[in-house]
Amino acid sequence: MDDTRSDIGAQGASNPFDASLLGSRLFPLMSSGVTVLQVNMGRLCNQSCRHCHVEAGPGRVEVMGRVTLEACVNILKERRYPIVDITGGAPEMNPNYRWFVQECLRLGCHVKTRTNLTILLEEGYKDLPAFFAGSRVEVIASLPYYLPDETDRQRGEGVFEASIEALKILNSFGYGVEGGLALNLVFNPCGAFLPPSQKSITEDFRKELKKRYGISFTGLFTITNMPIGRFLKFLKDSGNLKRYMERLKSSYNPVAASNVMCRQTLSVGWDGSLFDCDFNQMLGLRCDHGAPDHIEDFKGAELEARRIVTGLHCYGCTAGAGSSCTGAVA
């Protein structure tokens, strides 16, 4: 397989992923109705993780403005989507983050907020665990592994220790404890291979985090590393791109394909562009096939019945047990 960025997002009849869908009687892949509005609040982040498909970092200036966030609120008022999934970068660094969370809650939405954990220890953000708990939002926290070496290799020196401290703080506010607020962890492999069974790795994390650090959590999501962004660069530089793509393709699972998250999700980029998922967003593949591709032209009925834009990278969400922003799908 060619390792160029354009081929990773290839469209049309020559797209091998569409051939896989055709063989599974899933072509063309269509939205089954939007239940999740995923809002990417920007690429600004306090970390620069080597696997980041967003290529986020401290020097990024792409941040969703108030006008676009207000447009998201108006969409929620109109369409009543039940779930809002807030992501980034570090979404907490958006100056309108708290306002947006409160507006979503006021509309009765279930709010999920994604965090890299270390941001919760920085000045200006230390009160966020209390804000999360007071708002009763679901916290989804990235933790590549329960041991320091693997985590720091992927996310930077000292990240594991800071992440453990942040998790203890969240536990103290009732997150992840029995009968408490939802705290879900995100696991993704540290290299060019598929994640293990979500059930087995969850049991490992639960046992080891409790034994080593006294930390508890609600659940764990396994996510396949997508061949885009910094991880794509790693695959190219290490000579693993062809092998990794072949592994994804050979592991294609029709059950996972039928349950891919893009069928229920609409993703909003920091500039108001509309995408089928966060991964398409990072490849610049907007909603297409006649559906509106910017929030200024939002038409709910058309977007809720749209055809999904696909490419080779879609094998990442359909390999093995599948992958989504909420973990395995098959």
Description of the structure:
36% of the residues lie in helices and 11% in strands. It has a single domain, classed as TIM Barrel, CATH 3.20.20. The longest helix is centred in the middle third of the chain and has 16 residues, at 198-213. It has helices at residues 5-8, 16-23, 66-79, 97-106, 128-135, 148-155, 159-172, 198-213, 229-237, 241-250, 254-258, 278-283, 300-303, 315-318, and strands at residues 36-40, 83-87, 110-115, 138-142, 183-187, 219-222, 265-268, 274-275. It is globular.
Judged by helices, strands and strand pairing, the structural class is alpha/beta
Tell me how many strands there are: 8
CATH C-level label:
Alpha Beta
Shape: globular
Largest sheet entry: 8 strands, mixed
Strand order of the largest sheet: 6-5-4-3-2-1-7-8
Beta percentage is 5-15%
Could you spell the SSE succession in H and E letters? HHEHEHEHEHHEHEHHHEEHHH
Layout of strands and helices, then pairs:
Layout: H1 5-8, H2 16-23, E1 36-40, H3 66-79, E2 83-87, H4 97-106, E3 110-115, H5 128-135, E4 138-142, H6 148-155, H7 159-172, E5 183-187, H8 198-213, E6 219-222, H9 229-237, H10 241-250, H11 254-258, E7 265-268, E8 274-275, H12 278-283, H13 300-303, H14 315-318
Parallel strand pairs: 1-2, 1-7, 2-3, 3-4, 4-5, 5-6
Antiparallel strand pairs: 7-8
